[in-house]
Amino acid sequence: MAKAHNTSNPALRSPFSWLGAHSNTVLLACLLVVGGTTAFIAVADLVVDGASRRFDERVLRAFRQPGDESKIIGPAGTEEVARDLTALGGIAVVTLITMAVAGYLLIERRYGSLLLLLGSILGGLLFSTLLKHLFHRDRPNIVPRLSYVFTTSFPSGHSIMSAIVYLTLGTLLARFVQRRLLKFYFLSIALLLTFLVGLSRVVMGVHWPTDVLAGWSAGLVWALLCWLVARYLQHKRLVEQPEEAESGE
Fold it and tell me: To 10 degrees, what angle do helices 180-203 and 157-174 make?
């Protein structure tokens, strides 16, 4: 009788064993990375060719009052709400949230997760900055801007960073709960915040709609790549598993 293979030996494991029991989830993430990359390239191509100009202008004007384009459509206080929402993707708020989560991971002695988090956020910031320098698109000037800006327009940095930060935190929280409803809840809140931040940038007149669409696509791709890296590093025991949360004492 042939001897059974010792599958417990790491050397005999499949190189894809890190996919674990949720290989379908990993496959979906990979497909979304491809889809998000394709979407970003398609939007960037339209922007470079100037084919998106009419769409961008029409959407920007749709959020302003016909008789006075310095005012946003909607009831009194809409501009203040938009300003509050856009701040959720700003560098100050993103930094505070990141530092708060980093402090928690430091207290829990989850050093691998801490380094991964900081690497994801700082890498995403660098990624966003490089894309802006690469395309160097001017900011909208067809309606008054309701927020101070000092960088180039494409892609939207607020959209990228909100996608990276909130989706990363959403997936992190989802891994610490067992109920699917709670997982769905955390991810839904992350997606909602990302959507509202991007929408607010168009409402405030500081970004073309295609800037935001590209920002969402790029941010989603970066967040998913970081999630895939985290899953691989957890398999290699370089980043703590969720069940190790109580073993830091």
Answer: 170
Q: Burial of 80 by CB count in 10 Å (0-12 exposed, 13-18 middle, 19+ buried)?
A: exposed
DSSP β-bridge partners for residue 64: 72
Q: What residues of the chain score a pLDDT lower than 70?
A: 1-22, 242-249
Residue 32 CA to residue 222 CA, distance in Å, equals 11
* Distance from C-alpha of 238 to C-alpha of 185, rounded to nearest angstrom: 28
Residue 196's closest CA among 165, 164, 162?
Answer: 162
Under 8 Å CB-to-CB from 185, ≥6 apart: which residues?
A: none
Eight-class DSSP state of 18: G
pLDDT at 230: 84
Instruction: Residue 198: name the closest of 176, 215, 184 by CA.
Output: 215
Q: Is 152 helix (H, G, I), strand (E, B) or coil?
A: coil
Q: Residues in the chain, how many?
A: 249
What integer pLDDT is reported at residue 17 of this predicted model? 56
* DSSP at 238: S
Residue 68 per-residue DSSP state: E
**H or E element: which one contains 69?**
strand 68-72
